[in-house]
């Protein structure tokens, strides 16, 4: 998508969050020596592999054709991802190097970039992982709370079908 946009002269913004680590090698060695509180991550990963392969396949099929209704109807699968990222972010070395709050900082940077783009452009398109769009407290929900118009592909198709000028 980014290459497509740039080829057409569309301005692309990629919000970034920096992490300053003076000695990456030493930080990696320290991280390797520290135990991680990752039992929940491990348990949920095994559970997901053992019991949710069918759901993952259904999700992939629905994603491939843009069937958001079907995707929303499937069981929520982000608990495993959250447990694993929380185990990493909760480690002492991650907190020491400013990685502990990386998810919140990334979210804030993304929302700030969206707000700047909305003020600067007539039309703004944002790309996110589908899970972030579908989850009840995800980015799409946050944008709606901030009174932004968020159109999913299904609503866009309905709008085009009902408007003969489109």
Q: What are its keywords?
A:
single chain; 166 residues; mainly alpha; 11 helices
Summarize the structure.
The chain has helices at residues 2-7, 24-33, 39-51, 53-64, 68-73, 78-89, 92-96, 102-120, 130-134, 139-145, 153-162.
Helix and strand layout, with pairings?
Layout: H1 2-7, H2 24-33, H3 39-51, H4 53-64, H5 68-73, H6 78-89, H7 92-96, H8 102-120, H9 130-134, H10 139-145, H11 153-162
Helix pairs in contact: 3-6
Written description of the protein model:
The protein has a domain of 56 residues. The chain is globular. It is built from eleven helices and no strands. With 166 residues, the protein is mainly α. The two termini are 23 Å apart. About 4% of the residues have low confidence. Helix 3 packs antiparallel against helix 6.
The count of strands amounts to 0
- Helical percent range? 55-70%
Give the overall pLDDT as a whole number: 82
Radius of gyration: 20 Å
Number of helices: 11
What percent of residues are in strands?
Answer: under 5%
Secondary-structure class? mainly alpha
Unreliable stretches: 157-162
Sheet with the most strands? none
Shape by Cα distribution: globular
Q: What is the terminal separation in angstroms?
A: 23 Å
- The run of helices and strands is HHHHHHHHHHH
């Amino acid at each position: 998508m980014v290459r497509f946009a740039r080829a057409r002269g569309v301005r692309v913004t990629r919000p970034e969050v920096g992490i300053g680590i003076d000695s990456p090698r030493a930080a990696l060695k320290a991280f390797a020596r520290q135990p991680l509180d990752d039992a929940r991550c491990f348990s949920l990963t095994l559970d997901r592999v053992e019991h949710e392969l069918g759901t993952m396949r259904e999700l992939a099929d629905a994603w491939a054709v843009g069937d958001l209704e079907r995707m929303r109807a499937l069981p929520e699968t982000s608990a495993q991802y959250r447990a694993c990222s929380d185990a990493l972010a909760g480690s002492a070395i991650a907190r020491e190097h400013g990685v502990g709050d990386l998810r919140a900082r990334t979210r804030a940077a993304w929302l700030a970039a969206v707000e700047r783009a909305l003020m600067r452009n007539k039309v703004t398109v944002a790309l996110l992982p589908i899970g972030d769009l579908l989850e009840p407290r995800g980015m799409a929900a946050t944008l709606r709370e901030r009174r932004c118009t968020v159109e999913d592909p299904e609503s866009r198709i309905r709008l085009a079908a009902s408007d003969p000028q489109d």
